[in-house]
Each structure stands twice: as structure tokens, then as C-alpha cells.
Amino acid sequence: MLELQARDSKKPDSAGNQRIPIEYEVIKENGMITNVLVYRNRQLYVNLQAISDIIIDFYIQDGKIFNVTTHFKDLPLEHIEKKFEEIYGDRNWEGLYFSVDFQHFTTVTLEKGMASTTRWESNPSNVGRYRWGEVLQMQEKYKKEHSED
């Protein structure tokens, strides 16, 4: 699938506009795919109100995507943190930014010298067992505050 997207990104779109090419790299250890890196230039992020060159790192474990990290080459960490505060509001808990259904959360860090976001599955092993109860309480509170009467 990624090969097709990369190949198609080098062709003009239906209106004749040049597309931004996608490059990728597959990393293997002991014959198993561990990472797929996708390189994109001038990627628009509407929610962040920014354009940046990015590297998306898909971490693979047991043949499945474990998490996804996006490295922003051109955005300062503070910009992403500020926008995440605005976007996630009361679904932000100690730097964990939860999806509306609380099935995933995102962290914002400085990684490899670039501002980065990593999306994780919400579960006790990723959040930390000692903090999981607090996350469940936050989820219940959020549901009560945002449920329709």
C-alpha cells in the first residue's frame, strides 16, 4: 500500500498539479520489520496551523503497528504543546492527550532533536498501572460532563 502511495505521489493529480512526493524506508532486525519510516515535505497540519517537513515512524511489534511517532522538523515543541492544550482541553492529563473515546492517547516530546508526537493505545501497560485508575476516573468525569441530557 505504501509503495503504491509513494509511486502515485510522483505523478500529477487529476487537475495536473504536482503532488508532494512520499519517500519511505523499511527497517528490519533479524528478518522482521521493526519500523517503517515515511518522509514527507511541506505537510499541512490544519489543527496545528502549520506546515512542516515530517518523518512518520511506524513501530511494528509482532507484525502489528505498536505506535506511531511523527517528528516535525520545522515546528518548535512549544507550538505543538500549545496547540494540543487548545485541541484536547479537558482530555489532557499530565501530558497525555486522550482521544474523545479514550482509546488512544498522544504524548508530545523532543525526540531526535525534533518536536514529536507519539500515539499510543490506552491501556494499563502504556499509561502505567499505578496511574490507570486515575485515567479511568478522568474518562468517567469527561463522559458525564459531555453526555447529552
Order the strands across the largest sheet as they lie in space.
1-2-3-4-8-7-6-5
Radius of gyration over all CA atoms, rounded? 18 Å
Q: Characterize the biggest β-sheet.
A: 8 strands, antiparallel
Number of strands: 8
Task: Decide which structural class fits the backbone.
Answer: alpha+beta
Q: Overall mean pLDDT score?
A: 83
H-E string: HEEEEHEEEEHH
The shape, in one word, is: globular
Q: Given the structure, what is the number of helices?
A: 4
Fraction in helix: 25-40%
- Share in β-strands: 35-45%
Return the domain count. Answer: 1
Explain what this protein looks like in three dimensions:
The protein is an alpha+beta fold. The protein has one domain. 28% of the residues lie in helices and 43% in strands. It has helices spanning 2-8, 77-88, 124-127, 129-146; strands at 22-29, 32-45, 50-61, 64-72, 92-93, 96-98, 104-111, 114-121. Strands 1-2-3-4-8-7-6-5 form an eight-stranded antiparallel β-sheet, covered by helices on one side. The model has no long low-confidence stretch (mean pLDDT 83).
